[in-house]
């Protein structure tokens, strides 16, 4: 069940996932799904989804020349501003700062 949810999230991070939609895909109630996911993964489903999206965004920023807006849509954010807010809150720097830092250090 959790494996199926992870496969869905990883396969389509831009989809407007909710606990309800993931629960439906796995055949569980929202409460059952959320509890089981948290037990297995160690964090709630939406926290995991946010972390996954930001990791994907960081990778895309580091290895492509795609605009922040294009990256934001690829990973499930409505626009560059929404991605920038989440990126800064979680990682402590803006997406453009991350890209510059990675490139300055040679991807290290």
Describe the structure.
- The protein is mostly helical.
- It is built from seven helices and no strands.
- It has helices spanning 2-11, 19-26, 30-41, 45-63, 68-74, 80-91, 95-104.
- The chain is elongated and about 45 Å long.
- The relative contact order is 0.12.
- The mean pLDDT is 95.
Count of individual beta strands: 0
| Rg computed from alpha carbons, rounded to a whole number of angstroms | 15 Å
Largest sheet descriptor: none
Alpha carbon gap, first and last residue: 35 Å
**Strand residue percentage:** under 5%
Order of helices and strands: HHHHHHH
Number of helices: 7
Poorly predicted spans = none
Helix content: over 70%
- Give the overall shape: elongated
Structural class: mainly alpha
């Amino acid at each position: 069940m959790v494996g199926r949810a992870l496969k869905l999230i990883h396969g389509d991070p831009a989809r407007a996932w909710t606990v309800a939609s993931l629960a439906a895909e796995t055949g569980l109630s929202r409460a059952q799904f959320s509890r089981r996911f948290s037990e297995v993964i160690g964090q709630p489903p939406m926290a995991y989804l946010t972390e996954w999206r930001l990791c994907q965004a960081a990778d895309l920023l580091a290895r492509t020349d795609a605009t922040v807006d294009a990256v934001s849509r690829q990973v499930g954010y409505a626009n560059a501003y929404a991605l920038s807010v989440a990126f800064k809150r979680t990682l402590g720097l803006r997406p453009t700062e991350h890209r510059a830092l990675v490139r300055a250090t040679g991807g290290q």
